[in-house]
Design brief:
Distance between the termini: 32 Å
Number of helices: 15
Largest sheet: none
Number of strands: 0
Helix content: over 70%
Structural class: mainly alpha
Length: 400
């Protein structure tokens, strides 16, 4: 997950000239875009989503990942070309606001601020699930112990977020690599592994409509894809050629595809035809400890990011103050309590999914208004894809 991977200023509309992308040499423009896209998309989702998607869909996990990457990559290319056409590289909310007005920018910021808190609850529940699975050898049903562990993760992250601690830039740069290494270890062991649909675990809802698990997985994958929209900040300003812009997006999508489909394939092979044996105790604890540390660090930076986004909703705001950070942390804990049920993790991930769909749809509407014929056609395709995914997910989750 994306914007949850760095401590950076929030989308603050037209007041963020410092958020513009650097001005690389023209021959480096594609690499700059690709690096920015991959850096923002690949984050905590590498650890969480392979297990969630595999447990929801079984052998259909590669289909779910492929569908998400096709849609996410299309959104990324659309937004990149939109920004290139406007000549200004700005965060998503500011890009939307420049075309649709500041109310639209405020809507995008508000939805992302709330969604980030639900996302942190999901991250904390996944970390707690891993710790309990390490202790017992199997994924446990949601209960008081799991809730207390999840709240402990959030309380630790909130205490750090309220402190003067700032993660060094070197740590932030290394964190996605560490997350990828841990994710690969978990995938190679097919761990943690829930029994599947109908089981009482935080990873899989116990009752879904036929085919609902697949569409829940597709929707939850927008958590892993929060970050496609960051391309609006990394397209060079002044813009490069359309060819270099498309090449940069294509290269970034290729990196993300290799990472996510690679993890999904490794986990699928490790799981084999039957239920895999859980790793030995020392390996479970090693993986669980690494997951706990890395995901707690993501919660730390994400709580601060959510507070920045919330502070940006007020035009005269100077930045997030401690009470606002504390309020964001309290909301995260509230979502964690709500998520204490079967399938709590993927259901909480629908919060970031709603934010992503809202932001992407707003960007597509902006492209419809400002773009040329080809860009408008692409925006229409993206809107249809987002609408179809939303409808299928709602049909899967709502009772008959």
């Amino acid at each position: 997950m994306s914007r949850e991977s760095t401590e950076r200023p929030a989308d603050t509309g037209a007041r963020t000239p410092t958020a513009r992308a650097p001005r690389p040499r023209p021959d480096r423009a594609a690499a700059t875009i690709a690096g920015g896209v991959a850096r923002e998309v690949l984050g905590a989702g590498m650890i969480i989503m392979p297990a969630v998607v595999a447990d929801l869909t079984g052998h259909g996990s590669l289909r779910a990942w492929t569908l998400h990457i096709l849609l996410g990559g299309s959104v990324c290319l659309l937004l990149a070309l939109l920004v290139r056409g406007t000549g200004r590289s700005l965060p998503l909310a500011a890009t939307v606001g420049a075309t649709l007005g500041q109310r639209a920018a405020g809507l995008v910021n508000a939805v992302f601020a709330v969604a980030f808190t639900a996302g942190q609850a999901a991250i904390a529940w996944f970390a707690a699930t891993c710790v309990l699975a390490a202790a017992t050898g199997a994924v446990q049903p949601p209960g008081q112990t799991g809730l207390l562990a999840a709240l402990g993760v959030l309380a630790t992250a909130l205490a750090l977020a309220l402190s003067p601690l700032r993660l060094p830039a070197a740590v932030l740069r290394a964190r996605p690599w560490a997350a990828g290494a841990v994710a690969l270890g978990c995938a190679a062991c097919a761990w943690p592994d829930a029994p599947g649909t109908g089981s009482h675990t935080p990873l899989v809802p116990s009752s879904l409509q036929p085919g609902g698990a697949f569409w829940l997985a597709v929707a939850a994958l927008f958590f892993a894809g929060v970050g496609w929209e960051a391309v609006t900040s990394v397209v060079p300003d002044p813009p490069t050629t359309a060819g270099r812009t498309a090449a940069g997006v294509g290269l970034g999508v290729a990196v993300v595809t290799a990472a996510y489909l690679g993890l999904a394939a490794v986990r699928s092979v490790a799981a084999g035809a039957g239920a895999p044996e859980p790793p030995v105790a020392w390996l479970r604890w090693t993986l669980a400890g690494a997951v706990l540390v890395i995901l707690t660090s993501y919660c730390l930076t994400n709580i601060r990011t959510a507070a920045r986004i919330a502070a940006a909703l007020r035009p005269d705001a100077a930045g997030p103050r401690r009470p606002l950070v504390a309020a964001v942390g309290a909301l995260c804990c509230g979502f964690a309590v709500i998520g204490a049920r079967d399938g709590g993790v993927p259901l909480l991930l629908l919060g970031p999914a709603v934010a992503a769909v809202t932001g992407y749809a707003a960007g597509a509407v902006a492209a419809l208004r400002r773009g040329g014929p080809l860009l408008r056609c692409g925006a229409g395709v993206v809107l249809l894809g987002l609408a179809a995914t939303t409808v299928q997910t709602m049909r899967a989750l709502l009772p008959g």
